[in-house]
Amino acid sequence: QVPADAPAMQAPGQHPPPPGHRPRPPPGDHPPPPGHFPPPPPPPPPPRFPPPEATAHEATPITVIRALPEPATPAAMATPVDPAASHADPFEIPHAPGVSSPALPAVGSAPLAADAAVSMSAGGGNTATDAPLPGEDAPHGLLSAWPWLAALSLALLAWWVASRRSHRLARETEQLSRQQRQLRSAHEQLRQQSAHLRNLSIHDPLTGTLNRQAFASELRELMDHLSRFGRPLNLIVFDLDHFKSINDQCGHLAGDAALKLVVGIVREHLVSADLFGRFGGDEFLIACADQSLESCAQLADTVRAAVERKAPLHTPALPGLTLSLGVAQANPEAGYLPDELFSRADAALYEAKRQGRNRVVTRDATAVVEPAPGHRHL
Ligand SMILES: Nc1nc2c(ncn2[C@@H]2O[C@H](COP(=O)(O)OP(=O)(O)OP(=O)(O)O)[C@@H](O)[C@H]2O)c(=O)[nH]1
Question: Is residue 276's pLDDT more than 50?
Fold first, then answer.
């Protein structure tokens, strides 16, 4: 028996009555007759049961957790919801009669369920209607899929950016390639124009031979090279005989044709190492490297004879066209001085004119050379 003043010291429900305790009958009730046992007392409240002041909203997570483990059958889904039951617990998922409701986990041993309920409540106030139906993806599935969707979106964005960059680079590469081809073509045109201008600057436009300045430059280079080895260099200076009369009798164009004919004949007898230039007017120069004076004089006479033989056969005919040639040599004894060599060859030419034209005159370094009238140089 519990003393009468004991319940006043304890809060109701905080301390369960000891086992075997039977509640005190209300005042005025009669004690049960012998042999009659009162109904058993309700089970004591669990220690961690939500306090009486907890709202229905706070208890909702527990209700949802109870509904999740076992989905309702189609019959249960078709059963209308009992309004009374809704009033009792608006967040409880209705179930059909006869369908056993999933067992509510023991409150005192369900801390994980309580945590899950808290997390779902924080997600936006779940209600019984938010619970996934059979066949639907659970919100947890969507939540677990969004990182993959985000990664896929990032991958697509990266591919799009890379694709645009690749197309831009391809366009720029094509543009650069086109500009490179244009530059290469322009460079080739400039190279050809430069070569043409250089060709014009060093050659005589009428006959194509080296002009006076170019011949002099080439002669000095060749002379410097041969002087290092002590090899001879021969110079031929020749002039067309009575050329003025050809111009006067046959015309200036016939005079040009006579100049070209002579140049062509000379070319037929030269080698690539020889130099051929036009001194001016009807005078020309030939430089032959590494030959004896006699051999070079023989070459000069061969050219003379060819002009004399071919001129009458030319069209228009150039009868009486002959050459006078003077030959001199630069060697270790005579020295390698271009102007001195030219003076001796020019004196030999003057001597050939003086002796009657259409001939070859040679002047070696030991010969007494009568200088040509007037002072000429390369
Ligand atoms: N057709 C033509 N004539 C030229 C050219 N250059 C110079 N002449 C002429 O060539 C002639 C040269 O004559 P000269 O050097 O005085 O003497 P030449 O008549 O050859 O007589 P010799 O030299 O004494 O045999 C001049 O009448 C010039 O007008 C040219 O490019 N074309």
Answer: yes
Ligand 1 atom closest to 245 (CA):
19
Q: Assess contact for 324 and 238: CB atoms under 8 A.
A: yes
Q: Determine if the peptide bond prior to 12 is cis (ω within 30°).
A: no
Q: How far apart are CA 133 and CA 129, in angstroms?
A: 9
CA-nearest residue for atom 12, ligand 1, is: 244
Q: Note whether 323 and 286 are within 8 A (CB).
A: no
Pocket test for ligand 1, best of 204, 282, 376 (most atoms within 8 A of CB): 282
Q: What predicted TM-score, i.e. pTM, was given to this entire model? A: 0.60
Q: Order of strands across the sheet with 233-240?
A: 275-280, 283-289, 233-240, 323-330, 360-363
Dihedral Cα 213, 217, 219, 220, nearest 10 deg: 140
Residues with CB under 6 A from ligand 1: 206, 239-244, 247, 252, 255-256, 259, 281-282, 353
Using one digit for the tens of pLDDT, what is the confidence trace for 187-212? 999 999 999 999 999 999 999 999 99
Structure token digits, residue 277: 């230039």
Give the distance (Å) from ligand 1 centre to CA of residue 352.
17
Rounded Cα distance, 333 and 263, in Å:
32
- Name the residue with tokens 């023991």: 106
How many angstroms does the Cα of residue 358 sit away from the middle of ligand 1?
Answer: 16
Instruction: Using alpha carbons, list the distances in angstroms from residue 64 to 117, 154, 351.
Output: 8, 36, 135
* Per-residue model confidence (pLDDT) at position 20: 52
Pick from 112, 7, 11, 29: which is nearest to 68 by CA?
112
Are 63 and 95 in contact by the 8 Å Cβ rule? The answer is no
User: What ipTM was estimated for this complex?
Assistant: 0.98
- The two tokens of residue 114 are 């309580």
More confident residue, 355 or 68: 355
